[in-house]
Amino acid sequence: MSIYVISEMERGKVRRIYGSSRYPSIHKGNIFMDFSGDVNLSHADSLPLIIRDFYSIVAIRPSHILISRDVLGGRPLYYDPENVSISSFRDVLEFPVELNPGEVIKLDYNGDVLERRVFSFENVFEIHNHDGDGANRDEDYLKEFIIKRLESYKARGCVAYSGGLDSSVLAKIYDLELISVTANPKEQEWLEKSGKAIGKNVEINKFGVEDVEEVLPDVLRAIETTNPIQVSIAIPIFLLMRFASEIGYREVVFGQGADELFGGYMRYISMDESELRSALLQDIRNIGRDNLVRDNKIAYTLEMRIHTPYLQWDIIEMAINIPANLKIRKENGEVIRKYILRKLALEILPRDVALRKKKAIQYSTKTMDILRKIARNRGMKVDEYLQELRRSSKSSG
Q1: What are the sequence ranges of the domains in the chain?
Q2: Cα-atom radius of gyration of the chain, to the nearest Å?
């Protein structure tokens, strides 16, 4: 649990209301939130415009309950209008309704919506209309902008290190310990080699079949889905955050967002510039639903805080306006993904680290292979096995 507000009902109305929060969420008076800054409720109706960061907020007011969430939906929040209850997790509510990204709702103490306002991505981020080479910023400006914003970010804890471009840039910038998890001996070799190449040691936690079987029920309860791709990504993230917690950290820095902002996924390379621009915008709009909700639910379960330096609001606004040919570029017959970020990385990282090709975490760590093996040993497909395990863990929990 992170944020949890529950009501004691009498004849369909709230008699008493109770609120609690667990790290990384906090509460200040009658405000419960996953956000570390200050909240001015005199601007409550337009919080998604005012707060340029990820957040979820519940404010208990004399006449209503205010709930709100950032436009990217990075922090999960659900409410139950029947029982006037609110939570960061869907499954603890009897009749859960997801609060939409960018939504501000005022609930009365009968559970009725008094007022609803919804702010869109375009309300918050300015999108310039240009094509191809139409940007008025050169490569040097963009590289300097990115590096300065990353350097100014107050990163704490440790860096989740994959040995790839995104986390290596962060590993070089921040004076923090690097940690990683893997079940792949070849990946372990690269983690150690690349870490030394940038002057850092990497604390590596090796896992195997038994470890995956042990954490699977907890992972499924945390992320509240049995989607095989989501689960296979969640397992190493859960193991990494648990490892970080075991060695004394409560905060972890992730490279999330770089692929969506700078063009990192393989499927982007077959698109023309117009298709790529549209796909990148859609992916960053959905980054909460597709990635951050999953990761933050894991963090809530383990009482950890996630940092995502690439997903600062000003970096997002800059990146969505970079021309497509500075994200995906063909040079000497080779397609270069995340072109502008690699150009930056070549100035601060060894060449083989800066140019290392991306491999999805579920495959690089061998997590998907392990999941398939576990399911196969039970005579099932992965999705069937996960659904059965989810049912049994919900009934036992």
Answers
A1: 3-123, 134-383
A2: 22
**Tokens read off for 25:** 């969420």
Q: In angstroms, rounded to a whole number, what is the distance separating the alpha carbons of residues 243 and 245?
A: 5
Closest CA to 56 of 383, 72, 221: 72
Q: Taking a C-beta distance cutoff of 8 angstroms, is the pair 243, 249 a contact? A: no
Q: pTM higher than 0.90, yes or no?
A: yes
Q: Where are the alpha helices (DSSP H) in 104-208?
A: 121-124, 139-152, 165-173, 185-197
Pair of tokens at residue 88: 């960061």
Would you say residue 122 has pLDDT above 90? Answer: yes
Burial (CB < 10 A; 0-12, 13-18, 19+), residue 72, is: buried
* 174: helix, strand or coil: coil
Q: How many CA atoms lie within 13 A of 11 on its CB side?
A: 0
One-letter identity of residue 144? E
Q: Per-residue pLDDT for 361 more than 90?
A: yes
Q: Does residue 184 register a pLDDT over 90?
A: yes
Q: List the alpha helices (DSSP H) in 224-336.
A: 228-246, 258-262, 273-285, 287, 293-302, 313-319
The three-class DSSP label of residue 222 is helix
Q: Does domain 134-383 have CATH number 3.40.50.620?
A: yes
